[in-house]
Amino acid sequence: MKLTSVVVSSTVVLASALSVSAHVGRGFAVPEPNAILQARSGHANGRRSRMMARANPSTDAQMAKVEDESQQCKPYGLSNSAELSKAYPKASQIADIVVGDDEGGRLFEELLSSNTIPNIQPKQGVENHMGISDQASNSYNMDQDPDCWWTATGCTKPKSKKFEEDITSCPEPRTWGLTFDDGPNCSHNAFYDYLQQNKLKATLFYIGTNVIDWPLQAQRGLTDGHDICVHTWSHHYMTTLTNAQVFSELYYTMRIIKDVTGVTPRCWRPPFGDVDNRVRAIASFLGLRTIIWDNDTDDWNVKPDGSETTQQIDQNYQNIIKQGNNGTTNDHGVIVLTHELTNSTMGEFIRQYPAIKKAYDHVVPLTACFNATSPYAEDKPTYPTFSDFVGGNIDAQGLPDANSMTVNVKSKMDIQSQKNQTSAGGFSPKSIKQAANGGSSSSGSSNSSSSSAAASSSNSGNGSSGSSDNSASNSQNKGTDGQNGAFSKASVSIASFAASAALSFLLYL
Ligand SMILES: [Zn+2]
User: Fold this and answer.
1) Catalytic residue annotation
2) pLDDT band at residue 476 under the 50/70/90 scheme
3) CATH topology assigned to domain 3-87+152-508
4) 116 C-alpha vs ligand 1 centroid, how far in Å?
């Protein structure tokens, strides 16, 4: 697969168009639509794509073979798409509990009565919650950092043991923890082909609205053997949202991933890294471990969609790459923030991978970093341990068949709070500790028989996974998911959200 076959998708065009009004703070150049259109029309897909254009893909396997990006990104519906869309928040809005969703409503009531949400007011947001207000920044006590607010201080380890610390780095030395945010990108086939050809598996942080828009592309993420985590429904600053909105942003993304792929994730990454103890508590109740990063490529901000030159992004990559063999990672490896957001971000990784491979002993998904062999609520699929993975056994076992996966509406999820996930093989602090102590890594989900998400308010369960302290973990943290600490003004993103909103608008007309 040629690199040039990763081309600008219609997602990017729409995102760029919509980003103009959403833009505040750090600047980026809005690309000339003509330049994008030229890039698209300049793409030669060859005979095979023209043949595929006649087909109407209706399975993961069929869609995975489509090379023409305009066909990949042509809005489509499956047989129950209309029913599915009624069960979810509108793609163009911040999620809230859907009217008539008794189960979601009941679970939210259970969360409220669990008394696990700390009394922290939502931070004041700006620009439709796409940034943090100056007032909220200026009035926050950064010295004491009472909320362990990442956006302010880079805090990832709450002082109170009631909250699990965030995962920030890969414990394995000289190892690159491979993560891609903001997918599924409708035009990711060439990129996923590249990962496949290079025997790479990644941890994919999927946005709910993208999953409902591109279910077949989301299925490919799983059936290719990557592991999937939550990246919220609409990609906003989570600390600015109400409790019900935070709950809904996470809950409905978990459920659409379950409806579309059959698995219930137990990990999530906050957009822009924006998390505090209130948001952590709600995520923990839903069984989700918070995962940040310790190195940021800033790839999302590359021209033409962003404001940095390719050379600057190259340099960001180089700064991380050199840590592979200069001794910096001899103690533990890194978790790197990269995106499948656009042609540029996917292409940039492809260009950098040979150097990454040379500098680091291993490039692995987070399941391997943490021996998270059973990362979902379901017993299957299972993933290789670190030693299995680096020994060449990189494939997940028990994956669904890409030819016959179905999409179900309102799947029942087995939600267990982080504190109730105790057996080895997951992302919870107790699971990771168990795995490190040699606990069985082939066990299924939690030992707990509780099917409820009711979280204990006990103080037990703080992480001991050996990740970093609560200092800002890396000076390079900035970007679409990594606004540098200390409030570098309100955010901007070309927002997959905007793209999804536009595409959903088309889809649901
Ligand atoms: Zn993101």
Assistant:
1) 181, 339
2) very low
3) TIM Barrel (3.20.20)
4) 26
